[in-house]
Batch of 2 targets.
Target 1
Amino acid sequence: MISPKLVEVGRHLNINIITNSEIKSVEGEPGNFSVTLVNHPRYIDPVKCTGCGECARHCPVTAVNRYNKGLDDRRATFIEYPQAVPLAFGIDTDTCIGCGLCENMCVAKAIRYDDVERESVLTVGSIILASGSQGYDPSKLDFLGYGKYPNVVTSEEFERILSASGPYRGHLCRPLDREEPRKIAWLQCIGSRDTNKCGNGYCSSVCCMYAVKEAMIAKEHAHCDLDCAIFNMDIRTFGKDYEKYYLRAKDKDGVRFIKSRVHTITEIPETGDLIVRFANESGQMQEETFNMVVLSVGLQIPETSKELAQKLGIKLDKYNFAVTDPFAPVQTSKAGVYTCGVFQGPKDIPSSVTEASAAACIAGADLSEARGTDTKVIQIPDQQDVAAQEPRIGVFVCNCGINIGGIVNVPEVTAYAAKLPHVVYADQNLFTCSQDTQDKIKEKIIEHKLNRVVVASCSPKTHEQMFMETLEACGLNRYLFEMANIRNQNSWIHSKSPALATQKAKDLVRMAVARSATLKQLNEKVISVNKQALVIGGGVAGMNAALGLGNQGFHVVLLEKESILGGFSRYLHHTIEGGDIQAYLKQLIAEVTAHDHIEVLTGARVVDFKGYKGNFTTDVQIGAQKENRTIPHGIIIVATGAREYSPKEYAYNQDPRVVTQVQLGDILEEKGARDMSAVVMIQCVGSRNAENENCSRICCQNAIKNALIIKKQNPDTNVFVLYRDIRTYGLMEDYYTEARNLGVIFIRFEADNPPQVVPSPEGMRVMVKDHILQQNLEIEADLVALSAGVTAEDTSDLCGIMKFNRNPEGFFIEAHVKLRPVDMPGEGIFLCGTAHGPKLITESIAQAQAAASRATTFLSKSEIKLSAITAHVDTEHCVKCLTCVRSCPFNVPVFNTEKQIIEIDEAICHGCGICAGVCPRQTIQLNYYEDDQILCKIDALLAGGM
Amino acid sequence: MAEEVIKLGGKKKSMFIDKVKEIIPDGGNLNLCLTCGACSSGCPATGLDGMDPRKFLRMAALGMDDEIMKSDWPWMCTMCQRCIYVCPMKIDIPQLVFNARGLRPREQRPKGILASCDMQLRNESTSAMGISPDDFVFVVQDVLEEVRESQPEFADMQAPIDKEGAEFFLNQNSREPVTEPNELLPLWKILHLAGVDWTYGSHGWAGENYCMFLSDNDSWEKITRTTVGQANKLGCKIFLNTE
């Protein structure tokens, strides 16, 4: 999943990756920092290294493989993992014996034994700290036996065990005897929520979800019916749709969730199995034997990040997370220095990716004046038209050091290629991807008047773009290029049969040459980008998105359906940290309305919509007079928000003594807790039930926030919180601890045995079974506060017009849960705030800034080039069966009722080819992958005789 | 425990748990329970009397002071501290149990412990076995003489009593001199071979302290004062508590 991202970053013209380096010092001010780096020696030149791996294959030294958590070995000459960027090896001098073998083996002459530590200086305008975390080391928890019993592993180790590139190649084995376990236990909260042994009072946020995931994957990998048990205090699956995954694990896949913390693990020395003794919920001692125990270790800030913070002079909290403000989630205590990811606080991948974009947004605003002054742009010469010419094909066969050349007879393949039809030039290269070979290819294209190029080397996934750019650089259309993968799909897998591998390489080259002759010049449509943005929704998220764009100099139209800005935040008072929401809102509204680049339209309703990325047009009606207005815009940010669920449960709306948490917040704001003698709070009202399976994420902290206000105002008020799992993830765990410390009583109930609320003249009587004493409690309270969940705003009308996808709960669906959390599936459309799913104000702000940042990637360009790989319809032969209309995942093909034809708009076509595949009349062709261009490869293959 | 409904609510009342919190450091973190059950999972007394540390703490948190006072479970706790060792919140359950013992009128506390405490208070040895200083001196000298004769390598071993200015003051569980006198020997031999300058006291030599287990704080203090007083009187520098 992360590979394409790594490649994208690695190839990006304006991202300079400096590895093996640390910050020594930072001087200067926002907009002009001078950063001194210490560049540690790598001993292998990353520019020359091609990543072929010959050095490591011949290195005689065995070292502990830290990437696989010490579960296997690597060489002293190594690369951390196969997808690493830059794909360059390094030498671990702690273990290297200096034998010189790698230097002798390296054909690229990249070994630098005399490499030394250097210093370099960077001038930058903003700094973003994303130094991440490390897993907690459970060695000192002597009662768990980690480090003593081989089959007790950390979750990080187990992650590597499950990985195909891990120590056991993805086979589920335990370390002691490499036997497949039949029974595995996970112990949660190791190094989290523990102020006794490790001092990490916070929740690490991610362990519940990864433990469930590990159990599910382990079950998939196992050959037996693997028994998985997760010992936990609370299961915290609070993310979007996470609860559904937890329910699937529990109810469908039989993962056992046991509410208990294990005291001690003991080993059976004869078998290496582990005895786990625990008290169940009713206090009975249980004993189970597991083949393996996984310790779900928490996230911790490494010492190196502490030092980094000191060098930069930014404040850290008591757990060493960077201090940020609830209303400025990525701003550190020092101007111009931003943070994201776990260094800011424990969080999962979607939240980290979101925050990363948010940090880029705010950092970018600081630099907006200087935008484009320091960036590199490729200059492309005019394209020559070769359409009328006979194909003149050049074939470049790669040795890839000895990766291909050591198995495949490359000279033979080259000679063979030279004789194929239309081939006018064929040659071999040591490394076809190296910079000097690119220059050589350009030379040959000109010298031999080549109009098609075939490279027989590795995977197009990683290298196609680069070779296409080489073609462009000498005026050839980039689509006149074809690749044959004779490494990944040939030499690597047939290394034991060189003769057959050579034959297969010839087949692959013949097929590629045949296809290349059929390739056509394709022109990428260039569209202009309208620089105006449309933000729908004027709550905290929408306003922050508007500011994020406005502060970068883009013009924004902000639509709000109500007559005033603010959204649901108007009904909230304080964040759990104590941030004054109304004061913040006032200042935010003032800033937005006074902003030169932001136009606010209140009482606005979308009535029509058309267009595509870069060129949208939206019609809105404004105000009571329904004044019409047409807004052209390049991007859309959807921030339509959510509100509190209106309960049908627990006599709500029948008795005034039953209120929601938001209403309780109002009461506390107006009257305080002086008159309250006992308050009962009930969690998961309208969440985690049959109607709404998901967790509403914010209600636990909301209840605890109000409970704390009550207890601080009136310590004599008894507060009872009836809950299913307390989900105060991340640093909010401290407030849960504080609430207990102040005497709030937490009582867990089961979903199938919820509390009962009976109104009586004296007070509200709440009946619930105590989970520890297993006895019925009857609590007399003067107020019952329901922690009502989060309900998406009704956006049916909007979605009818704008065709946005929502999930069954009415929240908008993002393009990719982890990697594109603020992008919507349609390009140029972004998403933030509670419209995406329940979240805190802080999280909404970060997501709004993230959406603005993603939108900037469009708006900062004057024009965008669309991929030429799009589908087109031969309308004369089309029978209008509408199969394509039904099959397209992006709703691109439409039936034009006026012209009576199917139309595919190339501006919004994703080029996936599904329509071309399903068309029963073959009247749809996908550019670059036309039927003939694929079939000719098969013909060429069969022509060789199989 | 009876299956009756526990009634809660109304204003906060004065509770036993709050009194304990006041007298122990950091309030023993007694409010912080996550109800995770780590304590109960490791407690040797879990299940006895239908009780375990988590339940016991829960009863205290819910203000079930009567039930706590009536429960025999605090007397089944061995004060081993396995609970607090692993508790993620470092909750001092042993202190809660200790103070719960004190809730019961002294005369209603378990007979064995009560009688042993009373016996310790009655003699100058502070011995729960009731052995007098003279008898103790006699037994020590008798055992010493025998070993000096039968084991020539220990012919010059000493077992001093009331030796003024000795570096170490040693106490001794009174079970050994009464029932297993020969078990006194291994420690003497070690001290002898290590060349340690030590002494017993003729008064307050008994190391056990049943009054502590009885949660009788005054008597516990009295016994401790007797034995420490003897060490101070002899001018010893280090009190070696062998219990």
Target 2
Amino acid sequence: MRHMMTAAAALLAAATLPVAAQAQGTVKIGVISAYSGQFADTAVQIDNGIKLYMKQHGDTVAGKKIEVIRKDTGGPNADVAKRLAQELVVRDGVDILAGFTLTPEALGAAGVADEAKKLLVDMNAATAIVTEKSPYIVRVSLTLPQISETAGTWLATKGGAKKVYTMVSDFGPGIDAETGFQRAFKAAGGEVIGSVRMPVANPDFSAFVQRAKDLNPESIFVFVPGGAQPAAIGKAFAERGMDPAKIKIISTGEAVDEQAVKAMGDVSIGRLSAWHYDYNHKSKLNDDFVKAFNAEFKRNPDFFAVGGYDGMHLIYEALKKTGGKADGDSLIAAAKGMKWESPRGPIAIDPDTRDIVQNVYIRKVEKVGGAIVNVDIDKVENVKDPTHGRK
Amino acid sequence: MATAPTTPQAYLQSLSRWRPIEIAFWLVTLVPFWLFPNYLSLANQIAVAALFALSLDLILGYAGIVSLGHAAFFGVGAYTAGIFSKFVWGEVFTGLIVAALMAALFGYVSSFIVARFRHLTLIMITLGLGLLLHSAANSAHWLTGGSDGFQGISVWKVAGLFKFDLYGKVAYAYSLCTLFVVFLCARRLINSPFGLALRGIRDNWVRMPAIGADSPSHIRKVYTISAAMAGIAGALIAQTTQTVSLDALSFERSADVVVMLVLGGAGRLYGGLVGATIFLIARDQFSGIAPQYWYFWIGILLVTVVMLLPNGILGGLSKLVGRWSRK
Amino acid sequence: MLPPIFGVLFDGIAYGMLLFVLSVGLSVTLGLMNFVNLAHCAFAMLGGYTTVVLMQDLHWPFFATLPAAFFIAALASIVVERTLYRRLYRASDLDQVLLTIGLAFISVAIAAWFFTTQQQPVDMPAYLRGSYQFFGLNIGVYRLFLVAVGVAVTAMLIMTVEHTRFGAQVRAAVDNQRMARGLGIDVDRTFAVTFALGSGLAGLGGALAIEIVGLDPSFAFTYLVYVLIVVSVGGLGSILGSFAAACLIGISDVAGKYYLPELGAFLIYLVMVAVLMWKPAGLFGRR
């Protein structure tokens, strides 16, 4: 027992690494993300976006040195995210909280940002309510209703479909996507002939795809989280002989991301999607971004990466405006209404809701010079989140 | 350890006597307030995990019920405390009690299933029940907020005086006091004839009924008590962080608590406390150094402990100490 | 035209075959030596990454990578068995759990380090893609292939266990280890070989699984629950039991999603709890 005590004491002692005295000329950014576990790749890509921005723009802005401290939540753990946010504020003395792979993380940390009056930059978490939790929160990624309502309207109008079957994952974001899509599709005169909610942890889609096929729908809307599922559901469509050339299959961007399209191969050709960013988006800025990203990390950027990149841009520009003042009130004032050109196109921060305003692109999977990629076929400009203020 | 106790009463009394090392342990838990004031929110999370591991120790260490679904009760406690604070009132102690009762109810109902099985079957039944509850909480979006997490927890100041602060000072004090009180109850329970009967069941499930200790009924009792304790732990995390997410019910949380308890040493009351402390401090430090690869170092830690200190850190150390003092 | 129930059955069996190949090794090692190997899926993951590396970097054909996935996983398991597992055969279950969870943690970190956290796409050969039409049913070619592999593995295992000397030793050791030792069977060696075989099959399962469920470093944990369900429902140490359980779980998963999608996330857990309450030792279990 005595040994146990000494061991515990030693460990406790080891836990107190010296806290560096806060240098006057430093702005610290605490990045809270799920660096380990099932969602690790998301966190890695956000982090790559952050790293690339700092490499291109230096680690000094408005006379202040930027220091990034990274914390792992291990997954959608609200309580861990909250603790990490507290520790970052009280122990490490950070000025800005950023990152947030998943909604529960952002919601967990929101209270800390509010109480400590720190700017919180949401670089991914996409549930609409996140920005409503504190006046210090700003989002640079996307909101699901922003994408899915645009998809619904587009499909019923320009897309020329009158009937749709919806398939979404049965959790918060999936339900958000389903609600938004169905609402907009119906508002534009379309009819929803059926819908299914699929378990979040779902390795095999054959049964759900068969259900959809039984109804012989004219079009299908899909939302599944990124990772292994997009390719799995795409292959299930192909196995059932559901050809995207005959049935309009529209989804959000995750379902046709780079890895999914690669794994699906030719059977993904013709798939439609509504999304705000793809590495194949055509612009000089994006070409340079993709090239630089590849040189640094030997892979293509995705929407997570562009979220991290734009988040850092917002922080840098806000600091320039405040002349290096890093308190939450000055930074959020500087961030409101900010407009800039991102690799994804022109984007802005809505001064009223502090949420992202951006173009939503309608893309189609096509074969271009031997490679299967998403090609922009239409765009809806300056889309705001449609749910803020709606009751 | 002078002479062997002669009567059963004397034996139980000798077990329940406070040893200096125990008093020292609890004094050490106060150290963070002065030495590590910036680590109090971590200390709070450790205290909660320790309480959760202690609740598991009652059934795993003392009654031999290995559960891979214990997060069910943690989660029920957390959601109950959250929902109670939103719809009834934010007073924390009543919140704890209500959460404990609700978790106990869930524990009592499931104990009728659990008490019938042993070994792998038992593990898988607890796992299955836990996963079913996790899925149910995801489906009951209207009540739990689903995967976005429960929103709208509002807790009052503790005892009307202390507000949960950003440093986690009140949170740690509150959780530590709760842990200590529950620990006293658990210690009393273990060092009672009931506790002895449990150990008997753990070591021989078939023979105990023959000497008058009905195994299933004892198991039902201890399982219910353990569920209530896990519920208190869940309520503490809900109240002190004002967040509850589906993760509170997840398989990962069930598996983590087993790892913490076994790491510290099951069946020793302090095993869960030591295991939770070491696991969470190691995790915090490793993930601070390598947020992506801390798994590696935690893995090395677990493998090393198993190889050098069988039966957990406390089990291994007490063996080493025993060998050393015999020389 | 055949009614959709046949399609559901076929898909369920195909999915079940994947689960069977992934889990049969664990069933036998648990039944044989009571060794709780929670790192089982880490060997499956190793098989998966073997296939990915051979296909992407060395441009091996998919079929040639399958035996390689088997042997690499088997080889790795022999190393781990000799160095670590051996010492814990007589330790408590809980120590075994701690050790093997630790190894699974390490494998996840190593996979993330070498292969990044990205999903690994594999480009299946054309003859394994697409589907056949069969009286109005869609029969996926890859699923048909999975069924063939599953049946072949089962047949080979049963032949080995029922009709070879080694099989007789395994059966004897599962039934009564002490007696088997008394008869001069080298139980430790039998176990080492069985263990390698089981891990090799897991490696094969990992390679086969990429096309259906993908591959990333979290694989070592994600499928552990499914594997444990198959093992417990089937009954420890029973090959036929695992086979039947894998089919049951596969079919109820697919049928549940098709007929009762509201229950999608619940059904396999309900089936497991129901089966275990009815037969605590599993379908084919003897204890």
